[in-house]
Amino acid sequence: MSVNLSFLHDNETRPLCRDLLAKRAAWLLRRLVPAGKNVSVVLMGDRDMASYNSRYRQRQGPTNVLSFAADPAPGQPAIALTEHEIGDILISVDTAAREARNNNTTLHDRITELIIHGLLHLLGYDHERSEEEAWVMWDKEQELFRELKCYRSGTMAQLAINIDHVATVRQARGGAEPDPVIAAGICELAGALGIVVHLREDRRHIQDRDVRILRQTVKTKLNLEMAAVKEIILIALDLKPDMITLVPEKRRELTTEGGLDVIANENKVRKTIDKMSRAAIPVSLFIDPDQEQIKAARDVGATFVELHTGRYCDAGTEQEREREFNLIAESAETASGAGLRVNAGHGLDYRNTARIAALDTIEELSIGHAVISRAVQVGLDQAVREMLALVKPPFPAR
Ligand code: PXP
Question: 346 an active-site residue?
């Protein structure tokens, strides 16, 4: 049982993740078709689609999807196929892109819907025969799409906790507590699979001592966020965290604002990646969900990108949130298709995280402020009770 996914003409202007589409098509085939059968999915532009539409259906102009069954109903077009093939599905990427824009969905999701539609036609469903059959087919399409989106091809997204703000509280008094090193241990015991710290040039929260000790104590994975500047690069090369994430850093910002401009900083980023590669330290680039930045990240040799989720989290309207979510979903797919590993983070909280975590190409979420803020809220009750027990002991003080 296999899916042959091909492009009639390579369509470089639309970055598509072949792997993701092939994986989804293979899942659908497994779900619907007996073992040993194959299907071909051919992606093309409007011009080629219009030509097939005219040749086989005598209709003018392009359409979104055409299916050609190996064993067609009388009067339906057929094309030469081997005995194991159930048929061919032709999809116009141009039409799918227009429909994705109109339906406010991602191009990959629209193409997936068209693969489902084409596959159901090959299996005998036909929305043109009667209204009742149209409803049956539509229901089946919805059911399959929902099931597919719940299925993750890899493992679940992992959670890494950014503990910078534990250090922010400590620095407010310049003392020793709360210690981010202890916080890191608690996060790991609670199930976090990574600890993230940002060693800023101005050392406003995390200190060199923290990173040094964390390097020895973190049992999961230590991800050092940093700017591509000499002083911090030397520290990273010396301490060898499990990975680094390059971020833009401005002195007066409250937190990281916007993603790294890999295109404008290509030379500096490439050199930093080269240095880290020689020390076997994988590099992630914190970038906005932007196709050009993804291409640049791939070209400079990054291992990961971390997609900036800030605009999605801060969106003021539902419409804006949808647009930002779709940008992240598409970027995650493109980056993964380009061979990059994909993380995401910034601004994620208890309301907006689940949707991002469900994207099946995202490996890890980096979350800080929301978790540390909640820790203050949910831990406050216990902290007050413990102090109260000292102020008013259960037995009379002598
Ligand atoms: N990822 C990066 C690159 C960041 O700079 C930050 C903030 O330090 C985060 C993730 C975590 O963001 P938040 O604290 O809003 O969860």
Answer: yes
